[in-house]
Amino acid sequence: MTEQEILEMARGAGIDGCAFIHAEDLVFEFGFRKYCEMNQCGNYGANYGCPPDCGTPLAMKEKAVCYSKALVLQTVQPVTDLSDAVETGALKKKHNARLRVFFDQLEAAGVKGMAIMAGPCSFCSPCAKVSGAPCRFPEKRTSCLSAYGINVAKMCESCGLSWDYGTKHVAFFGIYMMSSIC
Question: The pTM is what?
Answer without folding.
Answer: 0.92
